[in-house]
User: What shape does this take?
Amino acid sequence: MKLFQQMLVAGASLSLIAPIAAQASDVVNIEEMNSYANSQTKSSRFDSTTFINEVSEDIANLKGRLDGLEAKQNVLEAGSFSDTTTLDGKAVFRVGALDAPDPLPSTLSEALMFTYMYQMNLNTSFTGDDNLYVRLKTGNATKDKTWAEKPYGTYLSSTNTKGDSLAVDKMWYTLPVNDNNTVYVGPKIENYYMHGTTPSIYKPILKQFTLGGNASAYGASTSPGAGWTYTADNGFAISSNFTTQYGNTNTGLVTNEGKTSWATQVGYTTNQWAVSAIANMKYNGWTDTYFSTATGGARKKSGNDSEVADRNKANSTNIGLRAWWRPQETGTATPSVSIGYDTSEIDGAADSASNTTMYFVGLTWQDMFSDDDRIGIALGQPQKNESETTDPFAWEAYYSFKVNDSVTVTPAVFGGSSRNGTDGQDVTGAVVETEFKF
Assistant: This one.
């Protein structure tokens, strides 16, 4: 009876094992298993060393496979960002045209144009408090006959003239010294990134209206530089920094051969308003042309070329005053207001041509028709020299609305009268920008 029971148990066990064996046949070599079993004829019973050897061999094989997987994972991680690096960016499509003066200046075109800009921002921290910032940028606008004409104010904030070549556009390193002090240093930076007080909260379409008027006091250039900012807990801030154009060449940093901007800003900020003043010393003919007439942006000493060999290398002292205010609630008829005023004294210039001035006003209404929409109006006088008899004027107006969290569409119109400092040289433009953020 016991033999019969054993046979029943054996048959049932085989019936259960058969399907499993069929599924595993692709992995396990049955013939090799039989060969291994036949080779063990010297012993008719198992002992403790049999299991130890088998388990040790299996563990060794498993460890080898895990080491191989770990090596492959390391290869994958080597080609990816570190845990402390983040990436964001945007692409901007632009369609627009100009109504230019008659006769048409050689630098302007009235053609309908479609251009783009693409930007990626990389931020990496090494200690948790510091930051290495790198901006990659490209675009297909050109410097002539497009949206990059500075004397007429048609240079858009989103303009890029890289000719479809992706390049490093900005690069600097930020290091907090303690809770209140921050140090900046970089081979590609502009002064205003190193200030402690935001000069304007108006978001412009035209580059000339950035920073509360992009003229002599805040006008900058992407160059090697360094700076320091102190920000108190009560909203007070002070900063001092410098950049030198062509400081990455043999002209050197802060030399008599290089054009250097040394800016010091003092400001105070609350949740609802801010005021600031800046003194920017600019050397060796540093010029600012985004919000200037052709004459207003020049930095020339008096005399003629035979008397003054470096006539175009005048130094200048530039003072800028900025303030902004915003209402406690958006969606009302009361806009936020940003204002700016610059005055500049040119060393060595004739008494009748040694001073330039600029003013700016920017108004913004938010959440008027839908959440996160924006109405903007800006106007002002470009930087002009006191010797100029014309009264240049520039303006823009736009409505910006979000299609979703990542896509924003902004139709805008803009223009200027005697914008480049010449009577009758008026310009009007219209553009639609679509921004894709990621």
User: Anything to note?
Assistant: Residues 319 and 403 are 41 Å apart (CA to CA). The chain has one domain: 87-437. The chain has three helices and 16 strands.
